[in-house]
Write a structure and sequence with these properties.
The protein is an alpha/beta fold and 331 residues long. Helices cover 40% and strands 18% of the residues. A hairpin with a 4-residue loop joins strand 6 and strand 7. It binds adenosine monophosphate (AMP) and manganese (II) ion (2 copies). One manganese (II) ion binds next to helix 2.
C-alpha cells in the first residue's frame, strides 16, 4: 500500500527545524531533472530569504541546462560540499539514499528532511513529507510553502516550481496531470511565473546537435509485440559521432511512447560494453516502476528507469522478454 506522510504534524516539525537552524544543504537525485532542480532551488531561495546559509548539490549530470534559473548560484561542486557542515540536509525528489549521496545525508548529527513523490520512497528522513499522489515534488514544495508562509512565494520561487511541474508532467500532458497541477500552475503564474518563457526555454528550444541526435534516435525506432512495445536505441558511437553527451537524450523516450497503439516503451542507452541505461514509459495501469524494481531500478507507475549490467543488445533481449510477459499477464 502506498503511504502518504504529508500532514500537519510533519509540517510543524519542519517549521521548527527551519527556525532553529542556520545552515542547510539541499540535495537532489543523481542526474537531476527539472522537478528535482526546480524544487531544490525553490527551497533554497525560500531559506536564503530567511537569512540562512544554503548550498545545493546533486550528483551526475542534467539533461538540460538549468543555470538560468534564479538561485542557481547556490549550486556547489563536490569539493565545496565536503567542506560545508550544514546542520540540516533537505533531500528533494529522491526516493532512496542510494539515489542521492549517502555520504552527504548520513553524517550523524545532520537532520535529514525527505520531500518526495515516488511511491518507492523509503522514508529515510528524520522528517518525511511524501505523497506519491503528487504529480511532482514541486507540487509538494508549493503545498508546504503555502501552508508555512504563502507570501514568501516570490516570482523567482514561482519560476522554479513552475519548471518542476512543467517538466514532470511533460508540459501538462502525462498521465499524472491532475487538477492540483493546474491549480498550482495557475497560482504560480499569478505569482509571476513566466509560463511562456519557461516552456520555450525548457521544453521547446533544443540545441541543433540534440535535434540531429534525435533524428538518429528516431531512425532506431522499432516495434515489437504486434506494435504494443516500442524501443529506441542510442549507442555510444552515435553520441561520439554527433559530438553530443548522453544527457542530451533526456526526453527522447517520449517519442517511442508516442507511437500510436504502443503501451510500453523503452529507450536504451549504451553506457559501456557491459552497462545499459533503460528508460521506461507506459500507459494506463501498466506498471513500469514495478518492472524496473526487478532490476534494482524504480520510478513511477508510468515512468521508470533501470541500469542493466549487460551490453546493449543483450539488454534489449532481456527487457523485451520481460515486457512481453508484462503485456501477456495483463488482463
Ligand atoms: P528517466 O527515464 O531517467 O527519465 O526516469 C524516469 C523515472 O524513473 C524518474 O522518476 C527517475 O527518478 C526514475 N528512475 C530512473 N532510473 C532509475 C533507477 N536506476 N533507479 C530508480 N529510479 C529510477
Ligand atoms: Mn526527478
Ligand atoms: Mn519528480
Amino acid at each position: 500500500m502506498i503511504e502518504k506522510t504529508f500532514n500537519g504534524e510533519e509540517i510543524t516539525r519542519l517549521v521548527n527545524v527551519i527556525e532553529e537552524n542556520s545552515s542547510f544543504l539541499i540535495i537532489g537525485h543523481i542526474d537531476p531533472d527539472g522537478d528535482c532542480i526546480g524544487s531544490m532551488l525553490a527551497m533554497a531561495l525560500f531559506l536564503r530569504a530567511k537569512g540562512k546559509k544554503v548550498l545545493c548539490y546533486a550528483p551526475g549530470e542534467s539533461g538540460k541546462d538549468f543555470s538560468s534559473l534564479p538561485g542557481f548560484d547556490m549550486f556547489a561542486d563536490e569539493n565545496e560540499i565536503t567542506s560545508f557542515s550544514p546542520s540540516v540536509v533537505f533531500s528533494l525528489d529522491a526516493p532512496t539514499i542510494a539515489r542521492t549521496s549517502d555520504v552527504i545525508a548520513y553524517e550523524d548529527h545532520r537532520i535529514v528532511i525527505n520531500i518526495d513523490h515516488h511511491p518507492s520512497n523509503e522514508f529515510y528522513g528524520d522528517i518525511n513529507i511524501v505523497d506519491p499522489e503528487a504529480s511532482a515534488t514541486a507540487v509538494l514544495v508549493y503545498r508546504i510553502m503555502s501552508e508555512i508562509q504563502p507570501e514568501s512565494i516570490t516570482r523567482d520561487i514561482a519560476d522554479c516550481l513552475y519548471v518542476g511541474i512543467l517538466l514532470d508532467t511533460g508540459g501538462f500532458k502525462f498521465q499524472n496531470t491532475d487538477a492540483e497541477v493546474f491549480r498550482t500552475a495557475s497560482a504560480l503564474v499569478e505569482r509571476g511565473a513566466r509560463a511562456f518563457e519557461l516552456a520555450r526555454e525548457f521544453l521547446y528550444v533544443k540545441k541543433l546537435s540534440t535535434l540531429k541526435l534525435l533524428a538518429r534516435a528516431l531512425d532506431s525506432l522499432e516495434v515489437h509485440a504486434g506494435g504494443k512495445i516500442a524501443f529506441m536505441t542510442i549507442t555510444s558511437d552515435m553520441i561520439v559521432e554527433n559530438g553530443s553527451s548522453m544527457s542530451e537524450t533526456e526526453g527522447f523516450v517520449d517519442y517511442a511512447a508516442s507511437v500510436d497503439e504502443v503501451v510500453l516503451s523503452a529507450l536504451f542507452r549504451e553506457i559501456s560494453s557491459n552497462e545499459t541505461r533503460v528508460s521506461l514509459r507506459s500507459r494506463d495501469d501498466y506498471d513500469v516502476a514495478l518492472f524496473a524494481s526487478r532490476f534494482g531500478g524504480g520510478g513511477h507507475r508510468n515512468a521508470a528507469g533501470l541500469t542493466i549490467y549487460k551490453g546493449i543488445e543483450e539488454a534489449k533481449r532481456i527487457i523485451l522478454e520481460g515486457l512481453e510477459e508484462v503485456l501477456n499477464s495483463h488482463s
